[in-house]
């Protein structure tokens, strides 16, 4: 491979802001794997956000990208998987598997798509130093007429349309909106763009915590919600406390410490089979590796309010943000029914 921009390249990133800023290019924020594709004739590499290759995990995209991208190019985009008209990150994550036979099966049953939204090189020319407006102007004809499973990401300079996308696209499982300055050169691994994500709050039960890597202080609180049968399901964690607050929380929660085997709703967390029928903390996965998943059990008697962006199935997609304690709420009142579901939106319209 001999390209003006060689792999690995870490993608340009975005920093969060509360509102859609004016005077920029706006795109949907896709919920998938960020990927930079290098193609030089028959050679093709799909690089991840960390720079490590994803090529072996998406054989169907290797074939599709080789057939649809320009002969020599470097394209920034996102790999997504669709299910029932929505993006499905869980099914996408299943593709990172050590067995080639499993990957081939998933490539047939849950094929991935590639959404292209930036052009880093074309032919012998590097576009890293070109402004975004020029890169987009080069990307559109380069991908003119491209068809599924490769797509050109919709883009607009109209903030009102971006605001409608922000509301509508969530129903298709998208994450929000990205705003990009028109004069922006491509900065690998730098947070130079802006992301506007959905924010909501929920009242959840605190049923445990994990220690912080720095020592015997709270690293994250383990959160639960009651399902329709009244069972407390683990839905995620909240973190990002100051060092002083981590130490305070250990003392504050000490009266609630209990042995998991003493009637705790997540007592079966060490039983791998139990994870198949309930959401429990400490579920083994290829993502956690050898990470210590042990936790301190608390009697599920305290409720807190957390901020979150959106759900992935029956859990928080990302780490939630602690807002405040809710002594006025009972744990039994904290159920899934409080989580507002966005109005459904046809993902096919976005791909079109």
TrEMBL record:
Its EC number is 6.5.1.1. SUPFAM superfamilies: DNA ligase/mRNA capping enzyme, catalytic domain, Nucleic acid-binding proteins. It comes from Streptomyces litmocidini. Pfam families: DNA_ligase_A_C, DNA_ligase_A_M. It catalyses: ATP + (deoxyribonucleotide)n-3'-hydroxyl + 5'-phospho-(deoxyribonucleotide)m = (deoxyribonucleotide)n+m + AMP + diphosphate. InterPro entries: Adenylation_LigC-like, ATP-dep_DNA_ligase, DNA_ligase_ATP-dep_C, DNA_ligase_ATP-dep_cent, DNA_ligase_ATP-dep_CS, NA-bd_OB-fold, OBF_LigC-like. Keywords: Ligase. Residues 114-227 form the ATP-dependent DNA ligase family profile domain. This is DNA ligase (ATP). The keyword Ligase applies. It is an enzyme of class 6 (ligase). The keyword Nucleus does not apply. One of its GO terms (molecular function) is DNA ligase (ATP) activity. Belongs to the ATP-dependent DNA ligase family.
